[in-house]
Amino acid sequence: MPTAVRNPTEGLFSETGSRRGPQIGESLASVETDIIAGRKPVSAWGPAVEAWKRGGGDKIRDELQQALAERES
Are the C-beta atoms of residues 25 and 18 closer than 8 Å to each other? Predict the structure, then answer.
């Protein structure tokens, strides 16, 4: 696929992502589904993302950024 972009975190590990990722991801996906289905307004997305970040999303990002930097060095 000429326009495909590889996920740079593929093959990397996040301890927080392993422990908390499924739970916080499910909550975010639930809000996404509710917005698409019209059960929640689009304005519900921002607070859902903030909850994901506070619930471990920021830590997952940090761990993956560190792992990426280590892989590239």
Answer: no
* pTM score of the predicted model: 0.83
Tell me the C-alpha to C-alpha distance, in Å, between residue 7 and each of 31, 39, 43, 68: 24, 31, 28, 11
Nearest to 54 by CA among 30, 23, 29: 23
Inter-residue contact 17 to 60 (CB < 8 Å): yes
Which residues in the chain land under pLDDT 70? none
Neighbouring CB atoms inside 10 A of 56's CB total 19
Q: Tell me, what's the pLDDT at 2?
A: 87
Compute CA distances 32 → 18, 44, 72, 73, whole Å.
22, 9, 33, 37
